[in-house]
C-alpha cells in the first residue's frame, strides 16, 4: 500500500471525530496529517490534537483571511512563541480571500504581511489560502522573495498564480477540486506542474473528491485525489506517493517519518 501525507485538513471540524478520522486515514495508507489552525479560538485545539497524536499528526497556527479583522500583535506573539513546538509544522493558513470578503481587504493584507514577517523571522514555512486574489497575493509574496517559502494550499487559481508561485519558491497543493467536472482549466495547470513541487490534500471536511462527492470529506479520501493526480501526470501511484512524501519532508522539515 502506498503511503501518503494529507498536508491540509481540519481534524477539529470532522463529524466522525478525530480518533476515527485518524484510524480511517491510516487504514487507507495516510501516514501523516497536518491539521490547520485558522483563528485564535482554535489554536489550542489544534495544538492539543497534534500533541496527542504526534508524530502522526502535526498542526499549523495562523489567522485565515476570513478572520483578518481580528488579527492583533498579541495573536502574532502567540504564534511566534509556539512555532518552536515540534508539532507545529508551519504558519497558516494565511492569505487573502476576495471571494467572500469576510474581512476588509486592507485588514486581510495587514494580517497576511504580519504573519509572513513571523515566518521570515522564525524560518517557518507557510500554508497560503488565496481565492480571487491572485494579483495581490503574488505582489505580497514578492515582498518576501527568497525569505519565506511554503505551499499554496487547495490551489484553484490561474496559470499566472501557479507560475509566479513556483518562481517564488512555493509549492502547489492539489485537492479534490481537481476531480470536479468543471475543473478543466485547473487540470490543465496541474498537468504542467513539476512532480517535485506538488502536494495532495483533502481540506477536509470540505471539498470531497469524486467519487466521494456529496459526502463530508475526511483525510482517508486523499487517496482518491492522489489517484486522479497520478493518472493526470502519467505516473504510478507508487511514484506519486514517494515524490509527494519527499516534497512534504523537504517543505516541512519538522515532520518525522
TrEMBL record:
GO terms for molecular function: hydrolase activity. It comes from the Bacteria. Pfam families: TatD_DNase (PF01026). InterPro entries: DNase_TatD-rel_CS, Metal_Hydrolase, TatD-like, TatD/YcfH-like. Keywords: Hydrolase, Metal-binding. NCBIfam families: YchF/TatD family DNA exonuclease. Belongs to the metallo-dependent hydrolases superfamily. TatD-type hydrolase family. This is TatD family hydrolase. It comes from Bdellovibrio svalbardensis.
Amino acid at each position: 500500500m502506498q503511503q501518503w501525507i494529507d498536508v491540509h485538513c481540519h481534524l477539529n471540524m470532522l463529524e466522525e471525530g478525530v480518533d476515527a478520522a485518524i484510524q480511517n486515514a491510516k487504514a487507507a495508507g495516510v501516514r501523516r496529517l497536518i491539521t490547520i489552525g485558522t483563528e485564535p479560538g482554535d489554536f489550542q485545539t489544534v495544538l492539543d490534537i497534534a500533541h496527542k497524536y504526534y508524530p502522526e499528526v502535526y498542526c499549523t497556527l495562523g489567522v485565515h483571511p476570513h478572520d483578518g479583522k481580528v488579527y492583533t500583535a498579541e495573536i502574532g506573539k502567540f504564534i511566534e512563541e509556539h512555532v518552536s513546538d515540534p508539532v507545529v509544522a508551519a504558519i497558516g493558513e494565511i492569505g487573502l480571500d476576495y471571494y467572500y470578503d469576510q474581512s476588509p481587504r486592507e485588514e486581510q493584507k495587514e494580517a497576511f504581511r504580519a504573519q509572513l514577517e513571523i515566518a521570515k523571522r522564525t524560518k517557518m514555512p507557510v500554508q497560503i489560502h488565496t481565492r480571487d486574489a491572485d494579483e495581490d497575493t503574488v505582489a505580497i509574496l514578492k515582498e518576501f522573495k527568497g525569505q519565506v517559502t511554503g505551499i499554496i494550499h487547495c490551489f484553484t487559481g490561474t496559470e499566472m498564480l501557479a507560475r509566479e508561485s513556483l518562481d517564488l519558491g512555493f509549492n502547489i497543493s492539489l485537492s479534490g477540486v481537481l476531480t470536479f467536472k468543471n475543473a478543466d482549466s485547473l487540470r490543465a495547470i496541474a498537468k504542467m506542474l513539476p512532480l517535485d513541487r506538488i502536494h495532495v490534500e483533502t481540506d477536509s471536511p470540505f471539498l470531497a473528491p469524486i467519487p466521494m462527492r456529496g459526502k463530508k470529506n475526511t483525510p482517508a479520501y486523499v487517496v482518491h485525489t492522489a489517484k486522479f493526480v497520478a493518472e493526470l501526470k502519467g505516473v504510478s501511484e507508487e511514484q506519486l506517493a514517494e515524490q509527494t512524501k519527499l516534497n512534504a519532508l523537504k517543505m516541512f522539515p519538522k515532520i518525522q517519518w
